[in-house]
């Protein structure tokens, strides 16, 4: 490099350009500049936010709660931890001042007229007192799910898969606040079901036998209409060889709690009052009701985010246009000439459109939630029949953030489709057919096909908007009409993520191989 | 394209009926020579028949027939694919107009045929004709597959479900109505395309119209609002023509519903014509 030599010249390359301008950060900046400077695209984003919020608010405004039976039923019983519960059953019990053990042989467990509830319950129960909502632990046999050890309404542990038709020995031992369940086929060889700690079981508690038989939901679902009917069931359990170590006082027979009235329509005992009798150490209990967490039917958080279903059309159009507009105008050639590593260009585009859609989606879903909640409350969706939701609650936060992620993933998926198809019309139509048409159709399709769509197509992403807690140990109907996705929120959004990544990957592979 | 213009040229001077046929011929040539037209039309048939077959194939009559209350509308289920195929049909109608704006052909077209009404009418005629043919193939194909699959699912004559056939008045109404509905969706696309001109914008608009209404209607928990929304929706009202059972449960009567869809299509076409007439190309 002496001054006498002519330096090697690259006249077309300005020295002002820093090295590494093909870096990923520069790519991101380039793509962001493209997105930012097209005014129509900014308006589209604004439109997506507005459509989402307006539709959500509209849905909230139109929803009114109708009390069929009329009047409030007073506060719903709540269990330990404030969970809304159902707690009504037939109980034959005596006092247990200290530690002790109850051992019984459940000789017979049969359901009366009507359908068999899969979560009917018969067995032994130790409960703080006979008031609904009091802390408890129970070892039971169920018609559909074998032996279970349950405590404090929300906890459930499985024992053997013994059928309800055969006699079964059950034993529950109290040692302070630790309760241990055992089961046996013959009363000689015992196996432990499990041990649970129930903090509420201090001092004198009640020990005894119980039977509960929940409502059986049946569903008639036709093209475009669904009707769910609940009928009460009634079960009878016969116990013999009942021994209680440490018990004191006489046996008492109680109908714990009020029988559940279907959706507040009736307040009297639905299944009739329980009956029980004792003769020569043989107990026969008949009753209805259930000991379980109560389920909310209406997902208020999902309801206040429902505008996402329409906002996605605009986001999808934007995602598609972000690449197809370049193909249309021939701009893509300039883009690829400037940065020949095409895969990276596409990834940079995906990052930019994804982050932008996430930001817009977040604004839209937070605004929808905050505006829709007071409206819903004013329309009658308030405690005690409906939960009070805060933006900071775990499930609500998941739904609100999840809706933004949902829109971001839809944008990325749309971008990938746009890169694959290179045509605006085809790509937009595909996204709409993938998301919007199934959303309309799930309420009318046969339930098997509808749930297939909900689980295995990109539609699954909408599961993230669900906030209702579903317990495995309560029989519930999962209806697409009610926005129930069978797989749960995380798997749902994960499915959509897989689709988005797969389509983007395919697009990267295709763009690298094909001429522009 | 150029040939059509050349052969059309002498007719411009001749007054009378020849002008309209010339315009229609030109539009037909334009549509016919695009690959995308035929792909789209194939897509419509496949979407309609495929989704219909998936729906009827997933039917399980077993648990349903046990209860006497179950009353599935097998014809309507067989034609579920129309809900999806209409998206492709709308694209077809929209592209017939917006593709010309995208490439600038529209200026040539309007220079050759200065009457905006005639251009739009010619487009509408050609699009409607193709839509009717493709619609008929799709609907009849779905119905044929539905007939087979529904029988497989156990919806037999003994169970109170006579085999699906065109001899039944309600089924014939569903078929004719389904084809007409497809024509109306395509015309809706043409009208909106003429009004908005931009492909992406028009498609977003037409999809929001077709699918947004039923989605919003489903969100409304007040039954009166829901019914009103369904009556106004071109899709929900228009597709009530596919029902053959439980007509009283529909938000609107079959033919009246198709009338709602037709009003939408005509209304949007008029707006499209007004924009085409009032605005520079």
TrEMBL record, chain A:
TM ranges: 41-60, 300-325, 346-376, 396-421, 428-449, 490-509
Gene3D superfamilies recorded: 2.60.120.200
Keywords from the named record: Membrane, Transmembrane, Transmembrane helix
Stretch list, region Disordered: 226-284
Compositionally skewed regions (Gly residues) per UniProt: 259-274
Origin species: Streptomyces polyasparticus
Biased composition (Low complexity): 226-238
Name this polypeptide is given: ABC transporter permease subunit
């Amino acid at each position: 490099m002496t001054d006498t030599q002519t330096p090697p010249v690259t006249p077309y390359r300005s020295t002002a350009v820093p090295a590494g301008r093909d870096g990923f950060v520069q790519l991101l900046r380039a793509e962001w500049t493209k997105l930012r400077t097209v005014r129509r695209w900014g308006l589209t984003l604004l439109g997506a936010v507005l459509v989402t919020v307006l539709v959500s608010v509209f849905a909230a405004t139109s929803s009114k709660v109708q009390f069929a039976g009329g009047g409030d039923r007073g506060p719903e019983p709540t269990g330990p931890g404030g969970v809304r519960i159902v707690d009504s059953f037939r109980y034959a019990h005596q006092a247990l001042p200290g530690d002790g053990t109850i051992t019984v042989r459940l000789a017979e467990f049969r359901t009366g007229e009507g359908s068999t509830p899969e979560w009917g319950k018969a067995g032994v129960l130790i409960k703080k007192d006979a008031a609904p909502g009091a802390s408890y632990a129970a070892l039971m046999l169920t018609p559909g799910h074998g032996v279970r050890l349950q405590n404090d309404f929300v906890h459930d542990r499985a024992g053997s898969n013994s059928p309800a038709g055969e006699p079964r020995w059950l034993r529950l031992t109290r040692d302070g606040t630790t309760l241990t369940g055992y089961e046996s086929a013959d009363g000689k060889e015992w196996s432990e079901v499990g041990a649970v700690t129930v903090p509420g079981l201090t001092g004198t508690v009640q020990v005894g036998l119980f039977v509960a038989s929940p409502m059986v939901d049946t569903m008639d679902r036709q093209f475009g209409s669904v009707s769910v009917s609940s009928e009460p069931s009634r079960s009878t359990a016969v116990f013999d060889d009942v021994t209680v170590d440490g018990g004191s006082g006489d046996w008492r027979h109680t109908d714990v709690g009020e029988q559940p009235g279907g959706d507040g329509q009736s307040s009297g005992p639905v299944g009739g009052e329980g009956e029980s009798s004792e003769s020569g150490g043989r107990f026969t209990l008949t009753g209805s009701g259930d000991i379980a967490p109560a389920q909310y039917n209406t997902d208020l958080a999902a309801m206040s985010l429902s505008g996402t279903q329409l906002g996605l059309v605009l986001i999808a159009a934007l995602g598609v246009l972000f690449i197809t507009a370049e193909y249309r105008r021939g701009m893509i050639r300039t883009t690829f000439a400037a940065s020949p590593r095409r895969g990276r260009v596409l990834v940079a585009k995906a990052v930019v459109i994804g982050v932008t859609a996430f930001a817009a989606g977040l604004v839209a879903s937070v605004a929808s939630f905050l505006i829709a909640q007071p409206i819903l409350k004013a329309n009658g969706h308030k405690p005690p029949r409906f939960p009070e939701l805060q933006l900071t609650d775990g499930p609500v936060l998941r739904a609100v953030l999840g809706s933004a992620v949902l829109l971001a993933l839809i944008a990325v998926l749309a971008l990938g489709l746009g890169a694959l198809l290179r045509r605006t019309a085809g790509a937009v139509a595909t996204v709409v057919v993938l998301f919007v048409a199934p959303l309309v159709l799930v309420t009318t399709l046969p339930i098997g096909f509808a749930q297939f769509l909900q689980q295995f197509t990109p539609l699954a992403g909408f599961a993230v908007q669900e906030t209702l807690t579903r317990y495995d140990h309560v029989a519930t109907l999962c209806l697409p009409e009610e926005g129930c996705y069978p797989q749960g929120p995380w798997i749902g959004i994960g499915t959509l993520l897989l689709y988005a990544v797969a389509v983007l990957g395919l697009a990267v592979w295709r763009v690298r191989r094909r001429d522009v | 394209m150029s040939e059509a213009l050349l052969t059309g040229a002498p007719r411009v001077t001749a007054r009378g009926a020849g002008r309209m046929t010339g315009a229609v011929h030109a539009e037909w040539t334009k549509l016919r020579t695009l690959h995308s037209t035929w792909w789209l039309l194939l897509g419509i048939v496949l979407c309609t028949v495929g989704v219909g077959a998936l729906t009827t194939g997933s039917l399980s009559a077993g648990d349903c027939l046990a209860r006497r209350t179950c009353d599935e509308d097998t014809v309507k289920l067989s034609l579920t694919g129309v809900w999806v195929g209409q998206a492709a049909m709308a694209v077809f109608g929209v592209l017939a107009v917006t593709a010309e704006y995208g490439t600038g052909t529209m200026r040539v077209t309007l220079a050759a045929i200065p009457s905006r009404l005639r251009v739009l009418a010619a487009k509408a005629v050609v699009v409607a004709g193709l839509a009717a043919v493709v619609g008929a193939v799709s609907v009849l194909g779905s119905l044929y597959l539905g007939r087979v699959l529904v029988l497989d699912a156990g919806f037999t004559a003994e169970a109170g479900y006579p085999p699906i056939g065109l001899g039944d008045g309600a089924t014939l109404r569903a078929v004719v109505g389904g084809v007409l509905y497809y024509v109306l969706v395509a015309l809706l696309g043409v009208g909106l395309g003429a009004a908005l001109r931009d492909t992406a914008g028009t498609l977003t608009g037409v999809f929001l119209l077709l699918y947004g209404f039923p989605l919003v209607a489903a969100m409304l928990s007040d039954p009166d609002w829901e019914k009103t929304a369904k009556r106004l929706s071109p899709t929900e009202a228009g597709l009530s023509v596919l029902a053959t059972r439980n007509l009283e449960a529909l938000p609107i009567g079959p033919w009246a519903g198709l009338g709602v869809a037709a009003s939408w299509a005509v209304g949007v076409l008029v707006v499209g014509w007004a924009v085409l007439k009032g605005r520079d190309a």
